[in-house]
Amino acid sequence: MSNPYPALISRAPFADHPVNPSELHGVTVSDRDGLGLAIVLVRKDKTAALAERIRSHFDIELPQGPQRTTAGELALAGTGPGAWLATSERGRTALAQSLRETIGDLASVSDQSDGYAVLRLSGPKLRATLCKLIPIDVHPRTFRIGDAATTVAAHIGVTVWRLEDGPDGSPVFEIAMYRSYAGSFWHALSYSAAEFGIVVYDSIRTEA
Questions:
Q1: Are 151 and 130 in contact (CB under 8 A)?
Q2: Residue boundaries of the structural domains of the chain
Q3: Same CATH fold, 36-111 and 27-33+115-200?
Q4: Which of 71, 90, 118, 122 has the greatest number of CB atoms lying within 10 Å of its CB?
Q5: CATH class as words, domain 27-33+115-200
């Protein structure tokens, strides 16, 4: 008798989602599958101590507001009072454990590497696309490089941050949402970018 429960196979959150063919290249998309992610929540009255610990161990400033700071492979984005989303280019296995060992007495750390999906978005028509998705101003004078926001996109809770502009001058954003909403977000993104054309690049994978 054959096994009715074949082995589960790991899949990227945006694998095999359709893209309507177009000659236009207004928006480019890359899946950040494999990125390490963790939520950090400071303990009561420990913000100053946490900032000093992170500065001394990781050589990175703890954002005090909706900004994102980076140092090497580590980045921290402020997502709310006493809350941050940490990401690491080293991959999903090392981030949360490293943070717990370093700041576990000052903050709670929750590994979200398998709980979140992240896309990198760019292109000359990206801002016009984002204006259809998220209810915040993404004009470069308002949403600057290093800014971050916790908001909604097509009724889906997301965290979005702006990176350095691309070589062609196009804006570059990354957007994170719960993995279970990846399909719904992709549907909304593809419709919002349909008039401009959407191109999917190979996933930007990190070492697990």
A1: no
A2: 27-33+115-200, 36-111
A3: no
A4: 118
A5: alpha beta
Tell me the CATH number of domain 36-111, given options 3.40.50.720, 3.40.250.10, 3.30.70.1520, 3.90.550.10.
Answer: 3.30.70.1520
pLDDT value at position 93? Answer: 72
* Beta bridge pairs of residue 153: 156
**Intervals of the chain under pLDDT 70:** 1-10, 18, 21, 91-92, 202-208
This prediction's pTM: 0.89
Please give the structure tokens belonging to residue 33.
């599958």
pLDDT reported for residue 3: 59
Q: What is the pLDDT of residues 94-122, one digit of tens each?
A: 899 999 999 999 999 999 999 999 999 99
| pLDDT (0 to 100) of residue 8 | 65
* pLDDT value for 45: 96
